[in-house]
Amino acid sequence: MERKEDTPAREARRKYEEKVKEKRKQASGNFGTMIPRPLFEEINAFLEENHITKVTLIREGYEALKKKKEDGSLKNKEE
Question: What is the pTM of this model?
Answer without folding.
Answer: 0.64
